[in-house]
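Subgroup meeting minutes
Present: P.N., E.W., G.H.
Scribe: E.W.

1. P.N. recapped why we're keeping a running log of single-chain structure predictions: easier to compare across weeks, and new members can see raw inputs and outputs side by side.
2. G.H. added today's entry (505 aa).
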Amino acid sequence: MKKIRILITTDIHGSLFPHYYHNNEIAPYSLSRISTIIKKFREKEEVIVIDNGDILQGSPFSAYAAENNISPTPLASALNSLQYDYINLGNHDFNYGEEYLFDYLNKSNAFSICGNALYKGKAIGQSKIHETQGIKIAFIGVVTQYIPNWEQAQNIKNFTFIDAFDYVQTEVERLKEEADYLVVVYHGGLERDLDSNMATEVLTGENLGSKMINEIAEIDVLVTGHQHRSIAYNSEKIVVVQANYNGNELMSIELDIDKKELKGSLIEVKDFAVDQAFLKPFLALEASVQKHLDQPLGRLASGDLLIEDPLEARLNKHPLVSFSNQILFSLAKDAQLASSALFNTVPGFNEFVSLRDLVNNYIYPNSFAVIKMSGKNVRAMLEKSAEFFALDNDEIIINPEFIKPKIQLYNYDMVDGIDYTIKVSNSKGERIITCLYQGKEIADDDYFKVVMNNYRAVGGGDFSMVKESELLYEIPTDMISAVIDYFRQHPVVHINHKENIKVIK
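Output recorded in log:
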């Protein structure tokens, strides 16, 4: 039987090593386990290997490499050692600026297929027809064009992004007569349910996979990413796949040439051994990372601030949130309100804080901004966050919409500087039953300076009321740098924790 197997990684987020960085315990994921799988398949069949982006950011290892401008970036070296054939880019691959991104692209042996990202008007990748065993497979690579809505301007000042759908439609039309199979590799996700076609999110254009499926009939395989979902969908018309993040899963497309059949599946990585030979070239750098992470920064006067229950930490505002907002107030001394969220996986702080604590709690290199918001828009922002909660058998739970199809716990913000009450049993849009500033109920025509991260400041998470408010100024620093500076000024930190948010049934 003649067949070809296409193996695709996505959203690796710098996870080369198989351990958790907050405690160094063994983790069931990583590129080091995927290496074992790739090598096993290569022993018995022809394999094409692709990465679908978001590889340069997301772990202490990758952050250390970027901050120290290590060249070639170890992420390129890792893919080279595994003989990747093609690479696409993800939105987080732009986080460390143009120079670091191009070091990755130029030092990678794999062919860049990311065609809708233009640098000074020229595409940084292009579609490629892969000829093998008498067939032609066209690989079309695209990244979500929504990047300018999140990324710091200086990191993409010379980039423009073509609409992903428009680019794919043009490329499919151009290549469909020449290729036997059309494979779209898209660092973006699905905005509709695959079976019902009902919208699963606000249709902003961030994710356009469903539109591609519905309107471009010639696509044979749609590889997706960005949403960190687990999808292996096979129909007579199309194969759609998406893997989780950090290398928990590997996407596999099996092409039976004789039967002209395609089948998509996901391979769980946890049961495969770590490839120590793959890791060997990176051990010295990893030792430097570990030493770097154990640098002591200071002490929390209140003792440990560990988080064990993600619902409890939000139901009763965790002191770590107060600490984050305290940092934001120190950055924007004229701000009246500060808004922060806890990321999806947040371990919290030990009493004696090290850099390891910071990188495990603040995983994204967000900068900050101060926004002028009306009282009306502040309430609307709080109402949007209040959608995070739901009732089940008269108990408050996390709204399933914040868990599936994508975990979005980071889209629940907690605001300091006001006192407010969320009543979960009320209808959406009517849950903020009190909202007081200095003891007085805020009015629609009041105005506040609100400091928040840049993702939320541009409306990320469908916070349109923030995006439409006036940007007063930006703060070009990231949270880790800000916290380090704060500890330098305050070796023992006293957290100004206030239980200012009530969540009731």
